[in-house]
Amino acid sequence: MRDMSQKVKKKHYYRRKDVVTIEEDATHEFKGHRNLAVEELPPWTKETKTTRASRKAVSRSLNAFLNTGKGGTVYLGVIDNGTVLGLKLTLYQKDHVVASVQDLFSRYHPPVQSHRYKVKFVPVFGEGSTEEEVLRLISKSDSDYSDTSQRHRTHEFRTYHYCWCDKDAFAQVNMGVLSPDYVIEITIKPWDPDDPHNTDGVGTVVNQHPTHEDEEGNVYMRRQASVVKYSLNDIAQLTRQQVKEECEAEIRRLKTEIASLSCQSDAEDQNMNHKS
Fold first, then answer.
1. In the predicted model, what is the mean pLDDT of residues 181-199?
2. What is the pTM of this model?
3. Long-range pairs of 232-238 with CB within 8 A, sequence gap ≥ 24
4. Residue 185, burial from CB neighbour count under 10 angstroms (0-12, 13-18, 19+)
5. CA angle at residue 161 from 157 to 163, to 5 degrees?
6. Cis before residue 210, ω within 30 degrees of 0?
7. What is the pLDDT of residue 261?
8. DSSP label at 16?
């Protein structure tokens, strides 16, 4: 039983109705839906003259995590209070999500390269699931699906209408087949100035992370657990401040290195004089 527990602990999974141990903050955001782009929001969730928007596109949070440079993760299938509900997804719907993220980031300006993010589907299990059941299910790969013939079909993006993969999922439900539940973790990686993918060959002192406009041409930043829209003037001021701070840090580093080399040179001179 101990070996079984160790194997389960090594696997990342959630239990339905559990409250996650993390909170929404500068690098974590919870969403109960998977509407990535603004066009995917159903009309009844949008803001009107008399009602506030009941749902915001995931893109806002992803854009904010990119623009802070510190990265972050959006958890789809976890509601605002941290309770895990999960999202039912077939193999084809998982393909849709991955391709939809790629499509969304291709519309950013500048586009977001694939090495800057990752998409992970983490299984969700019932409250009463045993460790044996958990291990058996999370070890089950997509290769267990008998019909993969439709994976070449083009998915429909940028619309709130159901894609063919969603209709296929509904058909399975009508036949009594329930899809597994997942939490979709979309992680934006922190900006790494030393990553060769993030260099343009110019050789500037400061390799500042780019500022991305989202699919609507807006720029968002992360402030604690909030997403804040920035104006062009705000972005210019913030960029100047960040560049100034990084240049000052580089100058301090160089001064320390020069001082160290100077001390080393003096020590070598004294050693030569002593020998002579």
1. 92
2. 0.80
3. 235/211
4. middle
5. 60
6. no
7. 78
8. T
